[in-house]
Input
Amino acid sequence: MSYNGSDFYDNDTNFENYMQRRQGQENANDTLEKPVIWQLLGDVSDQLVLDLGCGDAGFGVELLEKGCASYVGIEGSRNMVKAASNNLAGCNGTVVHTRLEDFTYPRDSYDLVLSRLAIHYLQDIEPVFQCIYQSLKPSGRFVFSVEHPVITSTLQPSGTRTNWVVDNYFIEGYREQQWLGGTVHKYHRTVEDYFRAMQKAGFIVEQLRESSPVREHFINEETYERRRRIPLFLFLAGRKSA
Ligand SMILES: C[S@@+](CC[C@H](N)C(=O)[O-])C[C@H]1O[C@@H](n2cnc3c(N)ncnc32)[C@H](O)[C@@H]1O
Output
């Protein structure tokens, strides 16, 4: 059975496998993705934050500890919502159980909308980016990460790789992947597609980053060298006009 982005995590085995990998030593999220996200976010103090595809909202807790004024996570998976509710208990944070495509985005409400590794699950990003734009206050920011298009072009089974295939790069759309013991579907877009979708929604695109590894984030030299071979993540940051 092939699952969409949220349903994949509602299969208990997939959920447990994901959480185990997410918390593993030198996992790519912590060594490659999160450091760039923090660089792009900068100071979050006093900001009203919306996090799309928030997972267990562990990052929401960190944002609140760094002084953001409030945190709302949007999440489509029941398992993740349960984990997020537990993590956010007692904090000025909430989680809403809905798909990103179905959420009613309030207008002019947030200083920062962020999304970490969820947008490659969306079939159509343009309407969602438009909603994000409208939900930001003037000068508000949108920062997101996705699996890098050189990876999503030709999805290969998860596991430690020694070679990669990049093929069908300019054929956008549906892909299936054998991942963590299950089958999940994702959507491939080129770097240019993401960039243009931001501009089309009205954003001034301010930064584009890839997950270039930094030695100090790794314990093992071997893992660091392996991460220098291919980019795993793509990041874009944009701003709503003042
Ligand atoms: C790879 S996880 C990342 C979770 C979290 N952002 C993090 O970085 O730890 C992707 C998350 O996006 C959620 N997701 C995927 N597609 C979604 C959709 N259409 N609507 C809402 N959530 C979605 C999944 O349920 C999952 O929790």
About this structure: The pocket of S-adenosylmethionine is lined by residues 5-6, 9, 53-55, 74-77, 80, 99-101, 116-118, 121-122 (CB under 6 Å). The first strand starts at residue 2 and ends at 3.
